[in-house]
Specification:
The structure holds 2 protein chains of 2 kinds.
Chain A: H1 2-16, H2 19-37, H3 51-84, H4 86-90, H5 97-129, H6 136-163, H7 167-183, H8 187-196, H9 200-208, H10 211-223, H11 233-241, H12 243-271
Helix pairs in contact in A: 1-5, 2-3, 2-5, 3-5, 3-6, 3-7, 3-10, 5-6, 5-12, 6-7, 6-10, 6-12, 8-9, 10-12, 11-12
Chain B: E1 2-11, E2 14-24, E3 29-33, H1 40-47, E4 54-59, H2 68-72, E5 75-78, H3 89-99, H4 104-113, H5 118-121, H6 131-143, E6 149-153, H7 161-172, E7 179-184, H8 187-190, E8 196-201, E9 204-210, E10 220-227, H9 232-240, E11 244-245, E12 251-257, H10 261-268, E13 275-282
Parallel strand pairs in B: 3-7, 3-8, 5-6, 6-7
Antiparallel strand pairs in B: 1-2, 1-4, 8-9, 10-12, 10-13, 11-12
Helix pairs in contact in B: 4-6
The chains are: A mainly alpha, B alpha/beta.
């Protein structure tokens, strides 16, 4: 366990010194600053005003940026470290492979979740300072969604880093994975549904296997609990899970998917050439 | 101590190690030589448990893949190319000491002996150090703990003559109870350090020979050179070896570390036409560089 924490700390310090972390933090901090600057807390959409309005917009933007950011930075740094000889040296030290791999994930998780959460927490603190009401229930659920999303894509990123032997291939794989998830959000899925006359349950199950769709639906469910904007699909989802059940599913499923991906990556990592 | 038994490694169906069998006993100092692609680095990576392979590698009866932490606890490794780590020097030392159950002070002491002030460099990122500093730090980490095997890949390539001598002295202190594998492209770089030479080619051992084991790793040679005439090129080369001009470029005095003598003579051979006389006398033990 000691080695795991040492590796996590090492990875965290490496991340904090890297350029991607600076850009990543600036992007999320910048989004919140811009949302405040453009007076989003004073505008109203679907009855939402104040910090709720800002959080709704923030989570939508985070959903668009976070997955690709996490995927690309994870595969770039892990595959890049391997190519540059960092693995050759650090894995010649007496650290067990499990401590190394999971320690790296823990360190990286802190570095990807911290800026996203800090931006949101900063917004809440600023709102309190400005005497704007903070919707704590929404704040906590969005925190959970972002935490789950970060973990999910980190796990997928680690799996892709293990599969690919070079940074270029790893980056390509990460981009294609993200693109497939993005295309399956609505466009291809609806086309399939119309063309193949498949059962709606099947199409929706396929949609809900896509973590991007799960986040999107969960984020929408906060201001549209009956998922009216989804039309008939909402019946299938709500019949299957119920409102509260879906909220739990939207956090648990991505965490399980991320863990499964990371665990698969670990098995492959342990069986393959390390550097 | 170390046993390679029919070790085979393929990369895309191409054999990089082709049934290597070797036994290395405690106290053996091996020069692992061969051209690029001969299989030296692959053999080292199999020993470090970093590659999968067919056959068996055992260190003290344990497998580096299966009993990784235990085996690597016995091996100190210095890579040929320093890793591009961004972490500060202090953190690298603390991390290495913690995972190796060693004391950071021990690493710092070795670093100081090699001429590296770790206290001053504590907050500097590792990748911002000069090539020589990186090499010294990696050597300090490898030697700053109790190991039974030292695996050194071109370890002295970036070191100045003083640091090379101290490095050889540090190796001499461990000569009795440590096996050493020193990888190099050229035998003259490491010849005086070793008592066995293993040459690899096309993934196979093509030469396995014992060499005379009467050189003192910590020895120093008081060296005096006289030239027919002063020459800028040899003056520059001798200055790199910290030689002093005592006769208007025609006479030079300096110290050469014992294990470096072949390398020094190799350098001199480029200017053999200029040489009038050469005198190399081994100093009494205990004499140190000023």
């Amino acid at each position: 366990m000691k080695h795991l924490w040492l590796t996590a700390k090492l990875d965290l310090v490496e991340s904090l010194r890297s350029r991607w972390f600076l850009i990543y933090s600036l992007v999320f901090g910048g989004i919140v600053a811009l949302l405040f600057a453009f007076g989003l807390t004073e505008s109203r959409v679907l009855g939402f005003i104040g910090l709720s309005r800002l959080l709704v917009t923030y989570i939508q933007l985070a959903m668009a940026i976070l997955p690709i950011f996490v995927l690309i930075t994870t595969v770039r740094s892990v595959a890049g470290d391997r190519e540059a000889g960092v693995f050759e040296y650090l894995l010649s030290l007496p650290v067990s492979l499990s401590a190394w791999y999971w320690g790296k994930i823990v360190g990286r998780y802190v570095s990807i979740f911290l800026p996203v959460f800090a931006a949101m927490a900063g917004a809440a603190l600023w709102a309190m300072f400005q005497e704007i009401e903070v919707p704590w229930g929404m704040f906590l659920y969005y925190t959970a969604i972002l935490a789950a999303m970060g973990w999910c894509f980190l796990g997928i990123g680690m799996l892709l880093s293990t599969l690919a032997r070079s940074t270029d291939v790893a980056q390509g794989l990460a981009f294609v994975t993200w693109l497939v998830m993005l295309l399956f959000l609505d466009l291809i899925l609806l086309g399939l549904l119309i063309q193949s006359r498949v059962a709606p349950e099947f199409a929706i199950t396929l949609a809900l296997a896509n973590p991007l769709q799960v986040f999107r639906t969960a984020a929408l469910s906060m201001f549209d609990p009956q998922l009216i904007v989804f039309g008939p699909s909402a019946y299938v989802i709500l019949d299957l899970f119920g409102v509260a059940g879906f909220k739990i599913f939207a956090v648990v499923y991505p965490v399980l998917l991320g863990t499964l991906s990371a665990a698969t990556g670990f098995v492959l990592f342990r069986r393959s050439d390390l550097p | 101590m170390i046993r390679f038994d029919s070790v085979k490694k393929l990369f895309r169906r191409h054999p990089v190690l082709d049934g290597v069998t070797l036994d290395i006993a405690t106290g053996e100092r091996i020069a692992l030589i061969g051209s690029n692609g001969a299989g030296k680095t692959t053999l080292i990576r199999c020993l470090l448990g970093e590659y999968t392979f067919d056959g068996e590698v055992l260190v003290d009866g344990e497998s580096p893949r299966k009993q990784r932490a235990s085996v690597l606890g016995k091996i100190g490794f210095v890579p040929q190319l320093p890793p591009p780590l961004k972490m500060p020097v202090g953190q690298l030392v603390t991390f290495a000491a913690a995972v190796c159950n060693s004391d950071p002070k021990r690493i710092e002491t070795i670093g100081t002996r090699l001429g590296l002030n770790i206290d001053e460099l504590r907050n500097r990122p590792f990748n911002r150090l000069s090539g020589g500093m990186k090499q010294k730090l990696l050597i300090a980490i490898a030697l700053g703990r109790d190991v039974k095997v030292l695996v050194l890949d071109e370890p002295a390539a970036n070191l100045d003559p003083e640091a090379r001598h101290i490095f050889f002295s540090l190796l001499a202190e461990r000569i009795e109870n440590t096996s050493m594998i020193i990888s190099s492209h050229r035998l003259d770089e490491v010849a005086q350090l070793v008592n066995r030479v293993i040459e690899m080619d096309m993934g196979m051992v093509v030469l396995d020979d014992r060499v005379a084991d009467d050189s003192n790793l910590a020895a120093m040679l008081n060296t005096k050179l006289r030239l027919h005439r002063a020459d800028d090129a040899i003056a520059r080369a001798l200055s790199e070896w910290s030689f002093t001009d005592v006769g208007e470029g025609m006479e030079w005095h300096g110290l050469v570390a014992g294990p470096d003598r072949l390398r020094f003579l190799g350098m001199l051979s480029r200017y053999v036409g200029l040489l009038k006389a050469i005198d190399m006398v081994e100093l009494d033990p205990g004499v140190t560089l000023q």
